[in-house]
Amino acid sequence: MAPETGPWQHRTVTTETRRYVEPGEPEPAVPLLGGDVTEGLVRVGDTVRRPVSDTSERVRRLLDFLHSAGFEGAPRFLGIDGSGRDTLSFVPGDTAGRPWPSWVAEESSAAGVARLVRAYDDTVQPLGVPEWAAAVDAADPPGCPPSVAGPPTFLAHMDITPENVVFRNGAGVALIDFDLMRPATRAEEVANLLLWWGAWMPVADREPVMREVDAASRAALLVDAYGLGPADRAKIVGVARNAADRSWHLMRHRALTRGGGWKRMWDEGIGDKILRRQAWLAENATVLHAALA
Ligand SMILES: Nc1ncnc2c1ncn2[C@@H]1O[C@H](COP(=O)(O)OP(=O)(O)O)[C@@H](O)[C@H]1O
Ligand SMILES: [Mg+2]
Predict the structure, then answer these.
(1) Are residues 283 and 190 in the same domain?
(2) Is pLDDT larger for residue 33 or for residue 263?
(3) In angstroms, what CA-CA distances link 173 with 60, 79, 94, 134, 286?
(4) Which atom of ligand 1 is nearest to 261's Cα?
(5) Which ligand is located closest to the Cα atom of residue 36?
(6) pLDDT score recorded for residue 26
(7) Whether residue 32 has its Cβ less than 6 Å from ligand 1
């Protein structure tokens, strides 16, 4: 479907006006602790309640689009509850907590996530880069190297951690947590997939279950399962290295300007971890590049 014919282009009121009507007396709120960043996230019955943030409106619109496109691998946006929180459908299944369970390291899990991400990317591709999804951090922080990824082509998820994928019966069935969704390229999306599901980081910085994973052969498996084209395969290592360089600046900037979980992660040493990843990518660039060719 061409983007100009979709209902999301004709929306004249924002999603902020959509109310969530409780189906009955609300069930007790159960805190959801899997993530690093979102405070106040709770499950209530078969819904999730998220405090409104500066990313809420774009995430609501994206979830609306995914629903209208018939994509089932994401929560639905159901409206705003009586306490002003975003209400999303709870996707039943398992997400990885820390330490990650052993199934995260299995080839079949990785391949399934790659296919899920491909399905998501293909679903949102027709939306292109809508004006409402302009980056939240509009300008790069000072000192941040420019992106080498080229012009964005679609709204990529860009945070495909095991905590952000719901599994059922050993297969990744849904992506959650679209807070870092942004206009990007396929190569950037797949570089993010490789970081988490391909263990593209030094062995000492990996979750224990990922220590035995061979980053080069796992990368080949992931890009094959995703079905990445040859031109993007050739770009991946350069894009991953640039993403690591940029990520150090962006994470520090978020820690300074947004605080909360971002500041906590920075204080816990994520900046140094990113520097070690940069060094690891430099050392392994040739081997990784060859594995993807
Ligand atoms: N819609 C949902 N369906 C099922 N589980 C969810 C949903 N939203 C959040 N969760 C659970 O809560 C955890 C944290 O949520 P997430 O949106 O990833 O927050 P954070 O921004 O803190 O990472 C997830 O890892 C998952 O276990
Ligand atoms: Mg998360």
Answers:
(1) yes
(2) 263
(3) 20, 23, 10, 27, 33
(4) 22
(5) 1
(6) 79
(7) yes
